[in-house]
Design brief:
Distance between the termini: 14 Å
Oligomer: single chain
Number of domains: 1
Structural class: alpha/beta
Strand order of the largest sheet: 4-3-8-7-5-6
Shape: globular
Number of strands: 8
Helix content: 40-55%
Radius of gyration: 18 Å
Length: 250
C-alpha cells in the first residue's frame, strides 16, 4: 500500500481523504452527530485541489476537517492511477440527500444557511414534505458586521446539522472561522445544492456524472461564469497529477 494511505484514508495531493462509500459516510456522520460537539465535513474536487496549492488558508481549512470525501470523478480516477483507489465518489449533493433521509428517520433537525431567499425558502418547503423538522433557515446574504449575528441565530436554533450553501472557498473559510461558536454537532458546505433541490439549476444526467462530464454540463449551463474555472484554472490539475505520479513512482 502506497505511503500515506490506509484502509480508511487515502492521501492525495497532500489531502487525507476518507475512503468511504456514501452509505459508510452517512453512518460516520450519524455517529458524529450523536457524539458531538462539532465536526466539520468537506468534499474535494479538482478545483479545490488546484486552489489549495496556492491558498494556505484553504489548505488548512480542508485538511483540518473531521471528514473528507472525494466529490470529483477525476479525483477517484486519479486515486486508481496512483495505486491507492478510493471506493467511490461521494458528492455533496448526494450526501445532502442521504442525510436529509437520515434526518427524517432519526429525528435530526437541520439548519439551512445560504443561497437566495426564494431558493432557501423553497428547499425548506420541500424538506418539510419529507417529514423533516427544520431547526431554521437563513439566506446567504449578510454584511460582515452581521455575520456574528447570523452565527448566533444558528447556534440559538440548536440544530443537529448545518448545511452551508456557499461557493468555495467562502464556505470552507466561514466554517473554519465559526465552527466552535456555532456549536453544531455536524457542519458541511453544500455549494450549489440548494439550487439543485429547489429546481433552479439542473444536475447533469447520471451517464454524464459516471463519465466524469458533470463539469461540462455545468459549463454549458453557465458558460460566462464557469469557463475560466474549468478551461483555464483547473488545467493545472494535469501537472499536479503528473508530479504526484512521478513522486509515487520513485
Amino acid at each position: 500500500m502506497p505511503a500515506g494511505t490506509s484502509a480508511e484514508k487515502v492521501t492525495l495531493f497532500g489531502v487525507p481523504i476518507d475512503n468511504l462509500t456514501l452509505t459508510e459516510t452517512v453512518g460516520r456522520v450519524e455517529a458524529m452527530i450523536r457524539a458531538g460537539p462539532t465536526h466539520q465535513h468537506v468534499v474535494v474536487n479538482v478545483d479545490k485541489i488546484v486552489k489549495l496549492q496556492k491558498d494556505d488558508q484553504l489548505r488548512v481549512a480542508i485538511v483540518g476537517c473531521d471528514l473528507i470525501n472525494a466529490d470529483g470523478q477525476l479525483i477517484v480516477w486519479a486515486s486508481r492511477l496512483l495505486g491507492c483507489p478510493l471506493k467511490e465518489r461521494v458528492t455533496g449533493v448526494d450526501l445532502f440527500g442521504a442525510l436529509i433521509a437520515c434526518c427524517a428517520a432519526r429525528g435530526f433537525r437541520p439548519f439551512l444557511l445560504g443561497a437566495r431567499q426564494e431558493v432557501v425558502e423553497r428547499v425548506a418547503e420541500i424538506l418539510q414534505t419529507k417529514r423533516v423538522t427544520l431547526a431554521g433557515f437563513h439566506n446567504g446574504y449578510w454584511s460582515p458586521d452581521e455575520e456574528a449575528v447570523v452565527v448566533s441565530q444558528v447556534r440559538a436554533a440548536q440544530p443537529d446539522i448545518l448545511f452551508v450553501a456557499m461557493s468555495s472557498p467562502k464556505k470552507e473559510l466561514f466554517l473554519r472561522q465559526w465552527k466552535e461558536q456555532l456549536q453544531v454537532p455536524f457542519v458541511m458546505g453544500v455549494g450549489g445544492t440548494f439550487d439543485v433541490v429547489a429546481g433552479a439549476v439542473k444536475r447533469a444526467p447520471v451517464w454524464m456524472q459516471r463519465c466524469g462530464l458533470e463539469w461540462f454540463y455545468r459549463l454549458c449551463q453557465e458558460p460566462r461564469r464557469m469557463w475560466r474555472r474549468y478551461l483555464v484554472e483547473d488545467m493545472a490539475f494535469i501537472g499536479l497529477l503528473l508530479s504526484e505520479w512521478r513522486t509515487r513512482r520513485h
